[in-house]
Amino acid sequence: MFLSNAHPDYRQPLDPADGDMLGEAGADAVDAYLAQRDNHAPTPLHALPGLAAELGVGALHVKDEGFRLGLGSFKALGGAYAVARLVLAEAGRALGRPVEMEEMQEPAVRAVAAGVTVACATDGNHGRSVAQGAGLMGAAAAIFVHSGVSDERVAAIARYGARMIRVEGTYDDSVAEATRVAQQEGWTIVSDTSWPGYEQIPALVMQGYTAMVREALRQLPELPTHVFVQAGVGGVAAAVAAHLQLVLGERRPRFIVVEPARAACVCESVRVGAPVRIAHGEPTVMAMLECYEPSRIAWRVLSRAADAFMTVDEEDAVAVMNRLARPVFGDPAIVAGESGGAGLAGLLRAMATPEIRTALDLGPSSRVFVINTEGATDPGRYAELVGLAPDVVRAGPA
């Protein structure tokens, strides 16, 4: 599926609340938080001139979030940041004064945090981030996972001291159960998707992602002409699209949203013209993108700031994992998880489809930017799909 944006709001200014949250001021707030993280460092930006030449584009750069804050995913920037902001706000109410990021490890703040429990449903990466953030601040975390989440992903979350709660059924079942129990227990839900009446916390999660875009703009040798970013509920795509629009204005690149064909809730919303919930189908290998209803904030942004929407198939995602693991023409090897390379898969599909290539004006003068949103967060699954262990890929040719 390929759809150009024909929504009435296309290219209209962002909602003021979204602009305030996802622009320069929002990125400044995230920088202040990251300055307090001992293991923070900008993630690598890789140039892939060999693959660019093979595809017929002028340049291709990949931002590699597999190195983010020890979690191996861009989501390390979202949930943990939102938890920090929530705890500081609660401390401010308890202490009767504003509490700054620099105070996050102060005894008075941690005493307040000890009485806070955050909760979320997750397929893996978001839950790890929320659990890490809770541990960092001294709060408790309860993480709900559905029956399809692998034991390896559950163990990776539990390492941060979170209470793990298994829920029979689908991701949606785990969301419903997390919401029910949190209301009963007085816990705070930290979700990366929004719905009517619940926007502040998902907006903070999205604000965390702006750090990734700011870093990339500083690292890129030239501004990109095209950006392909994958979507589940749409949060990261919307955060990237919004920040690019707010910072670059008329110089902003074309922005293309990429989804799994088996879970294309954003594309279906574009087709209908409003956010919709789609039916569950066969699971996608791109498990971190397996979402069936877009975030309302993400939809509000993408209907204005995205230029096109497209889907990729299962084999596209696996092919990109393998292509990045076994580069040619001297390109660096990159470990991309099942969902990590979906944006790049969109570019490959676009270049192989004349109608899409023409519609997006892709060619030798194009400078393309994509994000590897996750590394091998499930190493066993990665090795199964690629035929190599992640460490072997990172080590490069013998």
Automatic annotation (TrEMBL):
<feature type="region of interest" description="Disordered">
    <location>
        <begin position="1"/>
        <end position="21"/>
    </location>
</feature>
<dbReference type="Pfam" id="PF00291">
    <property type="entry name" value="PALP"/>
</dbReference>
<dbReference type="InterPro" id="IPR036052">
    <property type="entry name" value="TrpB-like_PALP_sf"/>
</dbReference>
<feature type="domain" description="Tryptophan synthase beta chain-like PALP">
    <location>
        <begin position="39"/>
        <end position="373"/>
    </location>
</feature>
<dbReference type="GO" id="GO:0008838">
    <property type="term" value="F:diaminopropionate ammonia-lyase activity"/>
</dbReference>
<protein>
    <submittedName>
        <fullName>Diaminopropionate ammonia-lyase</fullName>
        <ecNumber>4.3.1.15</ecNumber>
    </submittedName>
</protein>
<keyword id="KW-0663">Pyridoxal phosphate</keyword>
<keyword id="KW-0456">Lyase</keyword>
<dbReference type="InterPro" id="IPR010081">
    <property type="entry name" value="DiNH2opropionate_NH3_lyase"/>
</dbReference>
<dbReference type="InterPro" id="IPR001926">
    <property type="entry name" value="TrpB-like_PALP"/>
</dbReference>
